[in-house]
Specification:
Strand content of chain C: 25-35%
CATH class of chain C: Alpha Beta
Number of strands of chain C: 6
Radius of gyration of chain C: 15 Å
Number of domains of chain C: 1
Number of strands of chain B: 11
Distance between the termini of chain C: 17 Å
CATH architecture of the largest domain in chain B: 2-Layer Sandwich
Structural class of chain C: mainly beta
Strand order of the largest sheet of chain B: 8-9-10-7-1-11
Radius of gyration of chain B: 17 Å
CATH class of the largest domain in chain B: Alpha Beta
Order of helices and strands of chain C: EEEHEEE
CATH architecture of chain C: 2-Layer Sandwich
Number of domains of chain B: 2
Number of helices of chain B: 5
Distance between the termini of chain B: 54 Å
Largest interface: A-D, 115 and 112 residues
Oligomer: heterotetramer
Shape of chain B: globular
Chains: A alpha+beta (1002), B alpha+beta (227), C mainly beta (95), D alpha/beta (417)
Largest sheet of chain C: 4 strands, antiparallel
CATH superfamily of chain C: Folate-binding superfamily
Bound molecules: flavin-adenine dinucleotide, nicotinamide-adenine-dinucleotide, flavin mononucleotide, zinc ion
Chain lengths: 1002, 227, 95, 417
């Protein structure tokens, strides 16, 4: 059997079934219940990667989210996923994993020999000369960096979001979390319990099932199963495994990531690969446990050197032994448990090396009883061996120093424990700082965040009995805080912990040489950050923990320092001669473990990325060959090419037909707002630059809105429907902004005014019929409105029926032609539209899109807010003094128009331009200069905002903003083009067609 | 001239697959049913809640008082009225009564300090019901629609996915109505179909009637007041 | 992600609201009587405190109402919420 | 000081096991008085100190920093450097900066890894394309490199970008500035700190300014958590905290401080060789030399000093990135964070005098000031040294808000960067 390191019994794996997987092209076997890491270890694979900088061989160190080395590419092609942590990848049949590192001979391992040239921050000191070479250096640096590979095929998997509310969210399903959830739920609270693992139970699942960890007198596995079953039976409890609480956000909003596909090797039913839960919890209990940190000694990165708890987990949860002759190295009691686990599994434990003198705890006694040698008051100096640890060198300690007494023990496994670091990450995401505790030698959560509390080993309680009791109590407290009465009951009990001996903080094993000269002592494996790098950073003045992080890359890797940060910070403190509390930690940030972009995007992808807003006539446009333009979220027909037509040919046809006969535009997207109330006149007078109060019912008026800084921000037509009753239009993109604008002024500044606004953009389908034949078209469709020129004057509206549908018809024109805008209930939009097209057929009516609309309005010098204006133009700049009420004493933006630089000369003003060569269309966005020969930087006097070829005029023309342009009529300006050519144009008034405005008045 | 034809914004969506369960599932298996109630009368009623004359006039025309408690709806004969804001109510009536209602409303409120704006063409109503209706909503809504929090009688404006909506709880946890602006309706429908897929989704035939509870006397008032 | 207790609708997710800037800024009664400096003060100058901030929000995807919020700009904790026009003393119930 | 950095000094120091490297900058004790005190040791403050010493010979200078130097926005920005701004005033300022970037590693003797990999600003709507043309034309005439490219050309340069015409917001084209790129943000702060220190500037960390001392209308010094420091001139360069400092000096600014967020993916092999920014779809992305995708997000609407923002911004940003690069859907977010940006109403900085005599301010860089670091320091040093703005920053005065002369760069700065 190839699973050389699989124990003959034990573990939660399903030995009856075998799974096949490949790693770097080689086939291996494992079992359901394995992780990729446990399966590799079971197969005796020890070198699984190479270190980033020095290319040293690396093995698996941990068994959970702290693993820095075993980071693999899983899957291929469209379903590949880079940078997967093998310790958290569940094995499935056919899994394909790989690493880009060369596991055999690696030519870059010569870096190891040049290691001395590559201290922390070396790249800041080099690659500067010659200056032009940096891109080449950079290319080389980039090529060696990066762990996995991004997919290069689109992702076919689906993702979604799920919002959830609960009274109590419990993060972590270990003993503390289970007890808390059980209590909160039994009080009647809505509870969500999550754990990143495939099963609840937390660290209990990786301990031996022994009487000292029994709960309520039965095996802890039974207790877990029972508790989970009890919870599952309650209606308002949601249990989520394989779900990581990745981020803690303000006001008790917690992000969870549920894996529904990766563990199967394919998405779960109905295709959702990852589900992002967005939880709003009344109360949160953080029962996230603690992570073990390793001890730092020479060559501690050799494959075969692991954390003690990882060794226990592989033995107890997976039935795998990572080695056959172990040395346990510790500064606290818990690793003695690992020694016992190894011993129980029949593995030779060559020694327990404890930096403490005369370890006295109950576990130590048990180890002694098992006849395992204990070297107390000693340290590991360094590991030996290349591709795998072969032996360790041990030395006796006197204080922090070596006595000189050294010896060697051969082994193929080192299990080290430097103590435990509570998982305070989530607690700290919202700004709380963790607090160093000298007693427990770890950072603990600081004061509780509002509505949140912690329970279990995250609070520094490292024995089962306390964790259960605390979970029970915090579960009750959380339920109570959420308004639920706790039920009667007693905490689940576990046997009292035996005698313990305090931890002896021990951050860096002495090697007998200065840090800079001794063997490499790694702190952060993924980034090859060693104790010497930290010392160097300090020597160079990078003293703040944040500088050290950034200079040495400590904690920058995919494990975010879960394994090494605390050691690094302690080494930093020692180097500086400060306490750990003084140096502090770097900032904990989401994500606790990485989450996919796909999950974050959820359903907002592809055709659902953003709503496509459609008018009632959309399907008609599509069926008639329209090309669409995106305007805000709307789809607007841009133009309607007929077979074989170029864009310009289509536009020429649409323009010409509209000017000579009739054309129809779908104008439904314009924003529309109904305004009424006793103070509507007064209010609108303050909003618009022009007066409203003197309007007569039945009439329309064009208007400008300014921001309070005096700049135009929207325009539209106001129709007076009755006393203090108006209908406003806004630009397509401006509708929501104008609505908010009106509400804001009303509610926050003039709440006493009696005025209401209702958005009716969607209510009306708007069909703009333009052109000399538009009257005939309307007459054919309507017999209850008198379309006679004088009966239905320009800038008025009528109500009646068009094609049998109740309609409001405005006689307004954005083309300068005789024109009518028909507004009907949008449910009837398409029906009336088709009726208009049919009624216009005898006149050769055309449909036209936004581009033709732009040409026709530009020929008339009508502005498009947002195209000819850009938020920095006043009505005067645009030559629109006529739209500003002369007698008004106030309107929004008025005061700003009197500021010195607004009335000063030299401002850009709106003008027309006639290219000297009428066949040349000035590009929109072209810049204008007076002297195209001037050296760069060339003084610019303006720019082109709109520009077209006009079939009506027979030549091109443009609208532009030119400094003092209104007083430069007839002068020539130039536009230097990217290709070196220069386009000359004459400044003219902005109205090119029908200057007298006769055509709209026929 | 032929009779004017109305089109719902979902033209080409539910109508073309009328009654056909999506995803090849039988209706019995589907955890969600989706449908449209097109062409209903939708009116925005604006006025002040402390205007007693207006409130009285409204009670007369609706036969029931306007709901003044935020986020509640009430039901009169042939009409559902939802609180939208302190000066705004949404009035829903059946398609065929739309014009009469509009006329009688405008008449009844003519002398009042109030406005009635017809939104019937600008909105449509989507029904969402079934065992997993709440789960579907949870995918795009941050509202807490647990029956304990949102009983029948609850309504609110909110967002669903990237669309603004008006939501009405018809039956706690089970039956919901979503009023959506016309131009967003197609997007929202596609979103709902996509979000429902995992539960099996039945598409109901379009139905232009207003959903009223069996007894129009408001036994949900208590529930509402309790919340 | 804030949860904001709309004084009309109760607690709702931040996504239903829009932020509407510093509160309590009075538009001058008679703008034309202001100096350029006074006008600039009203237009642009802001308290922008690091600490307690009186600000306005709108329940734009709800009841549509603007209201006043006192929020700490470092902890993001909301100290009080009031309807427009309500003084701090009258409201301020939620904390 | 024999502390020059080169491959040779690296080799030499390797022989002595790197035990002989000197400090990059001294940990200075505050002196009772300086000619100039600069508040804030971000990139801009440190650059100001460096150019004061180097260009104006003023070395009796202290830079006081409340935390660790470079720990503000300098530490947390997405490092995009470009100069293709629309208005002449901004263009000249940012181009001055870009020119300084081009020799900075050599000038500072510190490799700031300025990587001129080019920046694309995508256009997804016709109006965006008009704006892009307008801006690129203006850039060209201002002597700034840049061109407008079409979707086909972008596709060739950035193969994994979604250039499909069927996208919700198809890419219609883009501006491209070849000389633009990225730099190593921390290195910039450290490089300036080291170079300023070498010229005698005192950099005082963990020293928070708590009050600005004035006599009549004139500044006389600062009060700090490490005692009072007198100064002839004081420069405020505190980015997101500008309002707080202005308050200490008794005036207000047209500034709101907002959270702005960014994030990185896990590191992968090179996949993206340039910088992509999109306004309409709202996200921007580059790949760092270490291999992470560095992604920037929209600004939070509310004010905040919390160095963290709202989660939905992160979601929206990654939806945008997935829309632009569907292949990145399976990449994972490693970490996200926030900074505090100082937003002005016209998206343009303020560099110049304050109502208090001899007190100067440099702020309002908002979402886009990293690229300006050397240029900003250069003009601000001039302003502090001479008491008057340099022609390049003359337009960026505080009183433009009173007179109405705004340089509104919302178009160019539309997407946070
Ligand atoms: C997420 C994010 C992404 C960005 N992306 C880009 C980008 O891609 N390109 C770009 O050009 N720009 C970008 N920016 C903007 C850019 O980071 C800033 O404009 C720029 O770094 C500002 O530099 P600074 O030196 O002025 O400020 P900072 O680096 O913030 O320095 C100000 C310093 O002042 C200190 N200080 C504050 N108060 C006091 C006090 N009372 N006493 C003493 N010291 C004090 C602070 O601690 C801080 O160190 C981004 C910003 C953010 C937040
Ligand atoms: N001997 C020792 O020194 C020692 C040290 C530490 C812990 N322990 C033992 O461990 C147990 C601690 O119990 P506990 O309940 O506090 O912790 P636990 O470790 O048993 O459970 C915590 C659970 O939370 C999960 N988790 C952590 N962060 C998460 C996140 N962000 N999202 C989802 N899941 C997350 C973990 O995977 C784990 O399953 C006790 O039995 C204690 O005796 C012993
Ligand atoms: C350009 C850039 C690249 C970064 N790359 C990484 C990275 O690879 N790994 C990492 O953990 N953090 C990375 N960070 C984020 C920092 O760890 C840190 O979050 C950020 O500087 C803000 O500081 P704070 O989180 O300590 O407040 C990067 C930041 C920036 C600005
Ligand atoms: Zn509300």
């Amino acid at each position: 059997m190839s699973q050389t390191h699989r124990l003959s019994q034990g573990g939660g794996i399903d030995r009856a079934r075998e799974l096949t997987f490949t790693f770097n092209g080689r086939r291996y076997q494992g079992h359901p219940g394995d992780t990729l890491a446990s399966a590799l270890l079971a197969n005796g694979v020890s070198v699984i990667g190479r270190s980033f900088k020095y290319h040293r061989p690396r093995g698996i160190v941990g068994a959970g989210p702290e693993e820095p080395n075993a980071i693999f590419q899983v899957g291929t092609g469209a379903t590949t996923r880079p940078d997967q942590r093998a310790t958290q990848v569940e094995l499935f049949d056919g899994l394909v994993a790989s690493t880009s590192a060369r596991l055999g001979f690696d030519p870059l391992s010569v870096n190891n020999m040049f290691a001395r040239m590559l201290p922390a921050g070396f790249y800041y000191k080099t690659f500067k000369w010659p200056a032009t070479y940096w891109p080449r250096y950079e290319e080389k640096i980039r090529a060696v960096a990066g762990i996995g590979e991004s997919p290069i095929e689109p992702d076919a998997d689906r993702y979604d979001h799920m919002n959830a509310h609960c009274d109590v969210l419990v993060v972590g399903g270990g003993p503390a979390g289970l007890a808390a959830a059980q209590r909160a739920a039994s009080a009647g609270a809505r509870v969500i319990l999550v754990d990143e693992n495939p099963a609840f139970g937390g660290s209990l699942l990786s301990g031996r099932d022994a009487p000292d960890n029994h709960v309520d007198g039965r095996s802890n596995r039974d207790w877990i199963a029972n508790t989970v079953a009890e919870l599952a039976a309650m209606p308002d409890v949601r249990l989520l495994t394989r779900t990581t609480a990745f981020g803690n956000y303000d006001h008790n909003f917690i992000g969870l990531m549920e894996d529904r596909g990766d563990y199967l090797g394919q998405p779960a039913a109905h295709g959702v690969r990852h589900r992002l839960w967005r939880v709003r919890a009344r109360q949160v209990v953080l029962a996230t446990g603690a992570l073990e940190r390793p001890l730092v000694f020479g060559n501690n990165d050799r494959p075969g050197v692991m954390t003690a708890s990882a060794v226990s987990i592989y033995i107890n949860r997976y039935g795998v032994t990572p080695g056959y002759r172990a040395v346990v190295f510790t500064n606290n009691d818990s690793a003695y448990g690992t020694a016992l686990d190894l011993h129980a599994a029949g593995i030779d434990v060559a020694a327990v090396v404890d930096v403490r003198r005369r370890p006295s705890g109950a576990l130590a006694a048990a180890v002694r009883a098992a006849k395992i040698p204990i070297h107390d008051g000693c340290t590991l100096i360094k590991a030996r061996g290349g591709r795998r640890v072969r032996s360790v060198e041990i030395g006796r300690l006197s204080g922090e120093q070596l006595t000189g007494d050294r010896w060697k023990i051969s082994c193929d496994l080192v299990a080290s424990s430097g103590g435990w670091s509570p998982v305070v990450h989530l607690h700290c995401h919202i700004g709380s700082k963790p607090v160093w505790d000298d007693q427990a030698a770890c950072f603990l959560p600081g004061a509780d965040n509002p509505g949140q509390t912690s329970a279990g080993s995250v609070t520094g309680h490292f024995n089962l009995r306390d964790c259960l009791a605390q979970g029970f109590e915090r579960g009750d407290a959380a339920a109570a805080a959420a308004g639920f009465e706790p039920t009667a009951g007693t905490a689940p009990s576990a046997p009292a912990a035996g005698e313990t001996m305090p931890i002896r903080p021990f951050w860096l094993a002495p090697s007998g040489a200065p840090i800079s000269r001794g063997p490499k002592q790694f702190v952060d494996f993924q980034n090859d950050t060693s104790a010497a790098d930290i010392a160097l950073a300090v020597r160079e003045g990078y003293e703040s923990v944040e500088h050290v992080k950034r200079y040495t890359a400590l904690g920058f890797g995919t494990d975010q320092g879960k394994l090494g940060n605390i050691n690094g910070m302690a080494i930093l403190a020692a180097t500086l001669g400060k306490s750990i509390a003084e140096t502090g930690t770097t900032t904990f940030r989401p994500a606790y473990t990485p989450i996919s972009f796909g999950a974050l995007a959820g359903r907002n992808a592809g055709h659902l990325f953003d709503p496509e807003r459609k008018t009632a006539m959309h399907e008609w446009h599509a069926a008639h060959g329209a090309l669409f333009e995106n305007v805000g979220q709307w789809k607007r027909p841009w133009y309607y090419p007929k077979d074989g037509e170029s864009m310009q040919e289509s536009l020429d046809r649409e323009c010409q037909t509209t000017r000579t006969a009739a054309g129809v535009l779908d104008a439904s997207t314009l924003g529309k707002i109904e305004v009424h109330g006793a103070d509507a006149d007064r209010f609108l007078d303050l909003i618009y630059t022009g007066a409203r109060r003197n309007m007569k019912t039945g009439t329309c008026r064009y208007g400008l809105m300014l921001h309070e800084d005096g700049m135009i921000f929207d325009d539209g037509v106001t129709a007076k429907l009755g006393d203090n009753h108006y209908f406003l239009t806004t630009t397509t993109g401006g509708a929501a902004g104008v609505m908010n604008w009106l509400e804001a002024w009303h509610q926050t500044e003039w709440p006493d005014m009696d005025v209401f606004f209702t958005s009716i953009t969607d209510q009306w389908a708007t069909i703009a019929v333009n052109g000399p034949k538009s009257r005939e078209v309307l007459q054919a469709l309507c017999n209850d409105i008198d379309f006679d020129r004088d009966a239905f004057a320009f800038m008025t509206f009528r109500e009646g029926t068009v094609a049998g549908v109740a309609a409001r018809v405005f006689r307004i024109s954005f083309t300068g032609e005789l024109a009518f805008e028909i507004n009907v209930d949008a449910n009837h939009g398409r029906y009336v539209w088709e009726a208009v097209m049919a009624a216009g057929a005898p006149y050769g009516i055309t449909v036209y899109g936004t581009e033709t609309m732009h040409i026709l309005r530009a020929e008339k010098g009508f502005i498009v807010a947002g195209q000819d204006t850009d938020g920095s133009m006043t009505p005067m700049d645009m030559g629109m003094q006529w739209a500003v009420g002369k007698k008004k004493t106030d309107f929004i933006g008025m005061r700003s128009l009197a500021r010195p630089d607004i009335v000063a000369s030299g401002r850009k003003q709106f003008v027309g331009l006639l290219p000297t060569d009428g066949t040349v269309v000035l590009p929109e966005g072209a810049q204008l200069v007076d002297d195209p020969q001037a050296p760069l930087p060339m003084p610019m006097v303006g720019h082109v905002s709109s520009s077209y070829h006009s079939v009506t005029l027979g030549h091109s023309f443009a609208l532009a903003l030119v400094k003092d342009g209104q007083s430069r009529m007839g002068e020539t300006v130039y536009s230097p083009q990217p290709d070196g050519s220069v386009i000359a144009a004459t400044i003219a008034g902005p109205v090119f067609y029908d200057r007298e405005g006769a055509r709209q008045n026929v | 001239m032929s009779e004017p034809v109305m089109e719902s914004p979902l033209i080409g969506r539910p109508h073309s697959i009328q009654g056909q369960p999506a995803d090849g599932q039988s209706a019995a298996q589907s955890g969600v049913s989706l449908g449209e109630r097109p062409f209903l009368g939708h009116f925005s009623l604006r006025g002040k809640a402390d205007d007693e004359a207006l409130m009285a006039a409204c009670s007369r025309v609706f036969g029931i008082a306007l709901p003044k408690t935020p986020n509640t709806w009430v039901e009169g004969e042939g009409v559902v009225i939802g609180w939208m804001g302190p000066t705004e109510w949404l009035v829903l009536v059946a398609a065929e009564t739309r014009h009469e209602w509009l006329i009688s409303l405008r008449e009844a409120l003519a002398d009042q300090h109030a406005g009635v704006v017809d939104l019937s063409g600008g909105q449509t109503l989507i029904t969402l019901a079934g065992e997993h209706a709440r789960d579907v909503l949870a995918k795009g809504s941050t509202l807490d629609l647990h029956p304990r929090e949102a009983q029948a009688g609850f309504c609110t404006r909110s967002t669903l996915a990237k669309s603004a909506i008006f939501l009405r709880v018809v039956e706690a946890g089970e039956r919901f109505e979503i009023v959506v602006r016309r131009s967003f309706a197609d997007y929202l429908w596609q979103w709902l179909v996509d979000a429902s897929e995992e539960y099996g989704c039945e598409i109901l035939p379009a139905d232009a009637t207003l959903a009223l509870s069996a007894s129009a006397d408001n036994d949900f008032d208590e529930a509402v007041n309790a919340s | 992600m804030f949860q904001i207790d709309c004084p009309w609708c109760g607690p709702r997710d931040q996504q239903e609201f829009s932020y509407a800037g510093e509160g309590g800024i009075q538009r001058p009664q008679d703008p034309s009587a202001t100096t350029d400096a006074e006008w600039a003060d009203y237009l642009f100058m802001r308290r922008n405190p690091r600490g307690m901030h009186h600000e306005q929000w709108r329940h734009v995807h709800g009841c549509g109402q603007f209201f006043q919020v006192t929020r700490h700009t470092v902890t993001y904790r909301i100290e009080s919420i009031r309807r427009m026009g309500e003084s701090a003393a009258a409201g301020g119930e939620s904390s | 000081m024999n502390n020059r950095y080169s491959i040779f000094s690296l080799a030499r120091n390797a022989l002595s096991h790197h035990e002989k490297w000197g400090r990059a900058w001294r940990s200075a004790e505050p002196q009772p008085e300086y000619d100039v005190v600069i508040i804030g040791a971000g990139g801009h403050g440190l650059a100001t100190a460096y150019y004061l010493a180097r260009e104006h010979g003023i070395t009796n200078v202290a830079v006081v920093e409340k935390g660790w130097l470079g720990g503000g926005n300098t530490a947390r920005n997405t490092t995009i450097v470009r100069s293709n701004y629309l208005y002449d005033e901004s263009a000249h300022l940012f181009e001055k900066s870009l020119k300084l970037w081009e020799g900075l590693s050599q000038e500072l003797n510190y490799n700031v890894m300025f990587s001129q990999r080019g920046v694309y600003n995508l256009g997804h709507t016709l109006q965006e394309m008009r704006d892009i043309h307008r801006r690129v034309n203006a850039n060209r005439l201002n002597g700034i490199d840049g061109e407008v490219v079409n979707a086909e050309q972008i596709k060739r340069a950035v193969p994994y970008l979604n250039t499909s015409p069927n996208a919700r917001y198809p890419i219609l084209g883009s501006s491209f500035q070849p000389r633009a790129g990225t730099a190593r943000h921390d290195g910039v702060a450290w490089g300036f700190a080291r170079a300023a220190d070498a010229r005698g500037v005192d950099i005082i960390e963990n020293c928070e300014v708590t009050n600005i001392l004035r006599d009549g209308g004139r500044v006389t010094g600062v009060e700090t958590t490490r005692g009072t420091i007198k100064a002839k001139k004081v420069g405020i360069v505190v980015a997101g905290h500008s309002g707080v400092l202005a308050d200490m000096a008794g005036f207000r600014l047209p500034i709101e401080s907002h959270p702005l967020q960014a994030l990185v993916s896990e590191p992968v092999k090179p996949i993206l060789d340039t910088v992509i920014m999109s306004n309409a779809v709202h996200g921007y992305i580059s790949q760092s030399d270490k291999g992470e995708l560095v992604i920037g997000a929209g600004i939070d609407s509310y004010t905040g000093y919390g160095q963290r923002g709202s989660f939905n911004i992160i979601e929206d940003t990654l939806a945008a990135i997935k829309e632009l690069f569907p292949v990145f859907s399976r990449m994972r977010m490693l970490r996200h964070w926030g900074g505090i940006v100082d937003i002005t109403p016209d998206a343009t900085p303020i560099i110049g005098k304050t109502p208090v005599e001899n007190l100067f301010i440099n702020c309002g860089w908002g979402t886009g000031g990293f690229k300006a670091t050397p240029g900003s320091g250069w003009v601000f040093a001039h302003t502090l040294a001479t008491g008057e703005p340099h022609p390049i920053n003359a337009a960026f005065s505080l009183d433009r808000y009173t007179t109405g002369y705004l340089v509104d760069e919302h178009g160019a700065a539309g997407v946070a960067h």
